[in-house]
């Protein structure tokens, strides 16, 4: 199947942190996704782009913090993350590009 352009709008980038590396041991991958994306949209996009079977999708929204930048008060953006659990035998290597 071919990936639709809107699939690339749903998934922004993979999240590579210590916590996401721990999740990958449990056959899960963490992606930063569009804040308006729903769980079925995320599931469809991951299955189409990476050619894997998705078991479950859990999402979290992290609120942006207020931070100072050069003395000026600024605000980081809100971020939505999707923890995508894959079926047995499927895997995604996030260290390589699409």
TrEMBL record:
Give the record's keywords alphabetically: Ribonucleoprotein, Ribosomal protein, RNA-binding, rRNA-binding
Check the record and name the InterPro entries matching this protein.
Nucleotide-bd_a/b_plait_sf (IPR012677), Ribosomal_uL23-like (IPR013025), Ribosomal_uL23/eL15/eS24_sf (IPR012678)
Query: Which molecular-function annotation in GO is an example for this chain?
Result: rRNA binding
Any one of the GO BP annotations = translation
Its GO CC terms are:
ribonucleoprotein complex; ribosome
Q: Which HAMAP family does the record cross-reference, listed alphabetically?
A: Ribosomal_uL23_B
By sequence similarity, the record places it as follows:
Belongs to the universal ribosomal protein uL23 family.
Describe the protein's quaternary organization and the partners it interacts with: Part of the 50S ribosomal subunit. Contacts protein L29, and trigger factor when it is bound to the ribosome.
The protein's job, in short, is: One of the early assembly proteins it binds 23S rRNA. One of the proteins that surrounds the polypeptide exit tunnel on the outside of the ribosome. Forms the main docking site for trigger factor binding to the ribosome.
* Name the record gives this protein: Large ribosomal subunit protein uL23
């Amino acid at each position: 199947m071919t990936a639709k352009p809107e699939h690339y709008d749903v998934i922004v980038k993979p999240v590579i942190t210590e916590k996401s590396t721990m999740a990958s041991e449990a056959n899960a991958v963490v992606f930063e996704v569009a804040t308006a994306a729903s769980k079925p949209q995320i599931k469809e996009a991951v299955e189409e782009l990476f050619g894997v079977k998705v078991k479950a999708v859990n999402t979290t929204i992290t609120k942006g913090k207020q931070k100072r930048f050069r003395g000026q008060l600024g605000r980081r953006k809100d971020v939505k993350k999707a923890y995508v659990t894959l079926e047995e035998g499927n895997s995604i290597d996030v260290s390589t590009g699409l």
